[in-house]
Amino acid sequence: MLENIEKYAKEYNIPIMQKEGIEFLTDFIKKNNIKKILEIGTAIGYSAIKMALVNEDVEIVSIERDYERYKEAVKNIKLLNLENRIKLINQDAFNVELDEKFDLIFIDAAKAQSIKFFNKFERNLNYNKYIITDNIKFHGLVGSDEKMSRNLKQLVRKISDYIDFLKNNDKYITTFYDIGDGISISIKR
Ligand code: SAM
Questions:
Q1: Which ligand 1 atom is nearest residue 109's CA?
Q2: Do 111 and 155 form a contact (C-beta atoms < 8 A)?
Q3: For the domain that residue 67 is a member of, what is the CATH number?
Q4: Beta strand 125-134 with 183-188: parallel, antiparallel or unpaired?
């Protein structure tokens, strides 16, 4: 089933987490006994499903703005009988207000907006818990002087700004990992 989702993502060009990255993330969830997760950026449900399969106590709320991807995620989650543990919200994350608190907030949506996602949802994070962000290296382009289009350059600059934002944020301790496409883990002090 998971192979089918990976195949679908490849065929329709849907960016899902790289194998190395998702293994690192699910290991982290297991080791730290994480139960409640908020994901920004469901796509077709691949990472949400992988996280939910870590163990039966894991509960996830995941937000996706694209209706077609959301529908595909609903289908995939149903096929795995995980609909009672993965709640999907089909909205732009910036329009979603949540009262719940989470042990992990996983930011994997529009890469130029990570600072805004972080600032919006950090109030939903439990004390001493984690915000994880994927694609910190953005295909190796962050920190490189490769020739790029203007738009891409802008996007890469925004990711660099996010890295600086994390490094300078005294409320969190952030570690950067050279895994998959680059992952950061910020722990709330
Ligand atoms: N986490 C998924 C996985 O590994 O299986 C991949 C997510 S994909 C990299 C990013 C997704 O975030 C896209 O499907 C995109 O439509 C969604 N997205 C981008 N900005 C968003 C926003 N403001 N609110 C909700 N979803 C957003």
A1: 12
A2: yes
A3: 3.40.50.150
A4: antiparallel
Report d(CA 56, CA 75) in Å as an integer. 20
Cα separation, 49 vs 133, in Å, equals: 17
Q: Which H or E run includes 176?
A: strand 172-177
User: Is the pTM above the cut of 0.70?
Assistant: yes
Into how many domains does the chain fold? 1
List the domain range (segments joined by +) for residue 131: 2-188
Please give the number of the atom of ligand 1 that sits closest to the Cα of 43.
Answer: 14
CB pairs under 8 A, 24+ apart, for 21-24? 21/134, 21/179, 21/180, 21/181, 21/183, 22/46, 22/47, 22/50, 22/180, 24/177, 24/179, 24/180, 24/183
Give the residues surrounding ligand 1 with Cβ less than 6 Å away.
Answer: 15-17, 41, 43, 46-47, 63-66, 69, 92-94, 108-110
Q: Residues 18-70: pLDDT tens digits?
A: 999 999 999 999 999 999 999 999 999 999 999 999 999 999 999 999 999 99
Ligand 1, atom 9: closest residue by C-alpha: 15
Q: Ligand 1: which of 2, 18, 66, 158 to mutate, most ligand atoms within 8 Å of CB?
A: 66
